[in-house]
Amino acid sequence: MNSARELLTLSIDNQTLKAERGTTILQAAQQNGIYIPTLCAHKDLTSFGGCRMCIVEVGGMRSLPTACTTPVAEGMVVRTQTPQVHATRLEILRLILSEHTSSCLICDEQEECRRYSTTIRKAGVTTGCRFCPKDNQCELQDVVNRLGLKDIGYPIYYRNLRVEKEDPFYDRDYNLCILCGRCVRVCQDVRAAGTLAFVQRGRQTIIGPAFKRSHFDAGCEFCGACVSVCPTGALYEKASKWDGKPEREEITRCPLCGIGCQLRLLIKGDRVIGSVPAEDPLINNGQLCVKGRFCITELVNGHQRLLQPRRRHNGTNAQIGWADAVDLAAEKLSACAPEDFGMLISACCCNEDLYVAQKFVRVVMGSHRIDTPARVFYGGGFTAYLDLLKMRLPLLALRNSTVILCVGLDARFGGSVVGVELRKAATRGAKIITIHPRHHSLSVLSDKWIQPIPGAELEILNALAERTRRNVAESTGPETTDKVGSLSAELDEVTETLKQATAPVLLVGSEFLQYDQSAAILRAIGCLSQNVGAGIILFPPQGNLFGSMLMGVYPELLPGGFSSTDRNRLDELGLKWGATIPGFSPSWDASVLSAGEKVKLLYLIGEVPPNLRPACDFSIFQNIYPPDSYFDADLVLPSTAFTEMDGTSINGEGRIQRMRKAVSPPGEALPSWQILCLIAQRMGKSGFDYRSAAEVWQEISLLVDGFGSFENPSREARPFVSEAVFVANNAAATANKASSTLPFILSASAVEHVYCGFPLSTWVGGAKKLFAEGIVDISPKDAAETGISEGDEVVVSSDDIEQVWPARVVPDQPEGVLHVVLRQGASINPNPHPVSIRKKNV
């Protein structure tokens, strides 16, 4: 018998039990419903034995061992409730409480206080359980109640530590900390981040980053793992601090990026009050990034959520009922010619919304003019990115990789789940190589950091592709002249590492996706991948980019990935839909709309306009929040957020995932597919009588291979296959060398962390610090030489642009390099390119 599965017989409190060899006494007891108190043990953490609350008596042992660190043995006899054990536990608990706010825990009137004194909550400092946000959810409180502690008997030492509220998503009151070490261990052992540690010694011991740094400066990813494992109220989420205990949970899929983590929505009444990771070995393995962990509550509960349709009439906005809204939409759409119509839909929408939207455009409007802003986000590299999507590997491939080359990847915030896998890979000996122009999360972790000047990435990747060719006659890469200069020796080293790797993997981030040369960069990555036999892992910022392709929400694509130019496919599709589908004409897509081309009627679903003031005669805006003030839509329709609807989506690996309705939508909001069906029916079109998302799914499954059960879809990673040829929009390569008159290189990124077209920073307070937009980063030396201070408004100019942004002095910013995350709808061209910088009005 395999020793790892060998069953041993032991006795706990006179119960004869079976347990696997290697199991601890605590685990064996928990598996059999036997209570042993503990404060430092946790199912996701290795045994620690710090709190000593789980001591037990074991026959043949003289001392009282801790159950969490003592493995079971054949014939072991364990007693968990003897007088000596109970008395010792009470004494240990008294010592713990002597440095913890504990008056309510042992008060004789605590039940009456809980019942009647509800107004004392939301205090600035916790002085008792009724003042604590974790009241009735606290593990320490539970242990006190289970052990029946009635007095402490020791002088109470209040540590008088300042409550730390500076960081964006959670508060820290270390006066409530019992030094169990859970937060330190989950940060170091599970997340492999090392942000937290025990600081100082003895009575002065506290938890926090070393050297008195803030969590932000110490590299904290704000993943919330420490908050999740804290047994007391020492760490608590700001957004749900006083919401109390959740009443139920619902497992769904996070839509905030293409990784597609599984999460548990915490629900009280009919409101989402939190989100925590679900145990999902395929993707996030019990981890979340800051977006999934902390942004969802604020995102879906904002007080500005759309509750009722409204229209603009004579310069004012007025609320109207659904019947009037559908009538108005049908009237305007009926009067619009196919060539005068355009629809933009978010690539974060569920498959059911996407499918019905493209069917609406092709059947109701007789057009192929539907697109997603993903085309604008990837720019000239859109087709090349889709080509790499066909070569992608699942995230699990990192666990067997020997060499990992990361290109343009920063995994600190949005991709921190990937960062965990990278740190674990480095721990087991995999080599990490990163190519990135700026300081990022892999700067310290990696074995080799290639730091190009922004815009030189193409030269570096072409040089690597050239060096890794197996045979010049069989070259898969472009012929290049070596222009890498001082980086040549480092690239030789990287080349040898890649050639010798038995399981290399390439990770592609988003740092360069807005570059003019992005298409060539992505093609070079593909060539390099083929040369060294490496798989590629992509992390699309859009939550359902894969699904948007399979559902056919692009002019060039039909459902299933078929080409819109295939007349036979169009006829087959029309036969199934009972309609005549027009032929494809490549005259319109999101890029021309972004450039200002006018349409008479613009329909936006889960999106905001790609430019500040879209040129259109009539606009329909369908979203969860109202449009910004700069865009005064003619008809506004309230739709549901992902927490309020059933559906499916597909992550970047090709895994189909269920999105489950957790709460009722606010006001009169409806799912987007249902709104489209109401309008189509009002326009007299058949085939739009779906009663549920499941019925939409059933129709999709007839057109798209691999779509099986709606409730339990297959979660196997699937390849992206498409016959379509996308209309390319390749920008010309640009020079990026600085000069005496233009001494800086400016690179720009688009807003990446978006939901329903809005940057997360629009509705989530803490996201404003992490995902700042419209701020230009400059190094301290460059700032000093140009007389620029933090927060100064500066003019960044060249022959092509002149922009005014506030400055941010970043210690790790490379000298001579500026970087900005552009605000929604903004762009610079060319990107990157040389500029000058000066303080405004100087």
Note down, in words, how this protein is organized.
The chain has 842 residues and is an alpha/beta fold. Among the domains are: 54 residues, ADC-like domains (N-terminal domain of TfIIb), CATH 2.20.25.90; 214 residues, Rossmann fold; 158 residues, Dimethylsulfoxide Reductase, domain 2 (3-Layer(aba) Sandwich); 96 residues, Barwin-like endoglucanases (Beta Barrel). Strand 9 and strand 10 form a beta hairpin. The relative contact order is 0.10.
Spans of at least 5 consecutive residues whose pLDDT stays below 50 are: 471-481
The helicity comes to: 25-40%
Instruction: Estimate the strand proportion.
Output: 15-25%
Give the helix/strand class: alpha/beta
Enter the CATH topology name of the domain at 310-372 and 553-703.
Rossmann fold
| Tertiary shape | globular
The major beta sheet can be summarized as: 7 strands, mixed
Spatial order of the strands forming the largest sheet:
13-12-25-24-23-14-15
- Give the CATH class of the domain at 310-372 and 553-703: Alpha Beta
Spatial separation of the terminal alpha carbons: 81 Å
Q: Total number of β-strand segments? A: 35
Mean pLDDT: 91
